[in-house]
Design goal:
- This protein is of the alpha/beta class.
- The protein is built from 7 helices and 11 strands.
- The relative contact order is 0.19.
- It binds S-adenosylmethionine (SAM).
């Protein structure tokens, strides 16, 4: 997933692809479980910030991919779990897993849900695909109820100076590079503040030393609480309640 800017690949340099094309190539092999050392520490940190009993929570997993966090939310007995993702191929992969939640195709912005719909929103390793962080966080906050929790992760901004790229090797042997925008911790603070979210915790885990020693943090994991209600609920989106 991470590669150094100047790294030489044995066969080819990464081929840049847009998000939908990239995930179409990746979906078939994208497991609903950590599949690299970075995802292991990321998942551990995300789970450490989530309530252990989610029975009273209506949950949304944004950019759910093949359903990793939907499974984890259900393992914590979430009252209801909805997953949304832009990639039809990733959703098709999620459908192969016994998720027991509802899957909806849709983008970050606008999210296809009315204001104040969810008690908890998770979003794993996806916001960096978007350049406009404030817009994404604003949408996540809009559909979160007042007092609700947002728990999300992304590549650590240290990667910008280290020259990390978002790459993967597809089954066809090609290494693809996905669009990624490194957002600083200040960017996250500003985006959350603007969206009425109060950041409670920021975790910056490094890799487990036994898997692959790496002195710097590899991911950013943020927990925020919606502390300011939406100013003007959007009436145009109320008709979408039938999705839930
Ligand atoms: C690295 S995968 C993470 C999948 C899952 N959250 C996980 O952690 O296992 C990123 C996901 O973000 C989705 N994604 C990227 N851009 C998106 C957008 N603009 N709107 C919705 N989903 C998007 C991709 O389709 C992909 O499934």
């Amino acid at each position: 997933m991470l590669s150094k800017r100047k790294q030489k690949f044995s066969h080819t340099t990464p081929t840049p692809v847009d998000i939908l094309t990239g995930y179409a190539h990746w979906a078939e092999s994208y497991q609903a479980a950590p599949h690299n050392p970075l995802m292991e520490v990321e998942q551990q940190a995300m789970l450490s910030l989530m309530p252990v009993d989610l029975r009273d929570y209506t949950c949304l997993d944004v950019a759910c991919g093949s359903g990793r966090y939907m499974l984890l939310l259900q393992a914590r007995r979430a009252g209801q779990v909805v997953g949304v993702d832009y990639s039809a191929d990733m959703l098709a992969q999620a459908k192969k897993v016994d998720l027991g939640g509802q899957l909806i195709r849709g983008p970050f912005s606008p999210l296809p849900f009315p204001d104040n719909s969810f008690d908890l929103i998770s979003c794993g390793m996806a916001v960096g695909h978007e350049k406009n962080l404030a817009q994404v966080i604003g949408e996540l906050s809009r559909v979160l109820r007042f007092g609700g929790l947002l728990i999300y992760s992304d590549l650590h901004p240290f990667g910008a100076t280290a020259g990390w790229k978002r790459t993967f090797a597809a089954a066809n042997g090609t290494t693809y590079q996905l669009e990624h925008h490194f957002h600083t911790i200040d960017d996250h603070h500003a985006a959350c503040r603007q969206a009425g979210l109060k950041i409670e915790t920021i975790l910056e885990p490094t890799l487990n030393p036994e898997s692959a020693p790496h002195p710097n943090p590899v991911v950013l994991v943020i927990k925020a609480v919606k502390s300011i209600p939406n100013p003007n609920p959007n009436p145009n989106l109320q008709s979408l309640t039938s999705n839930l």
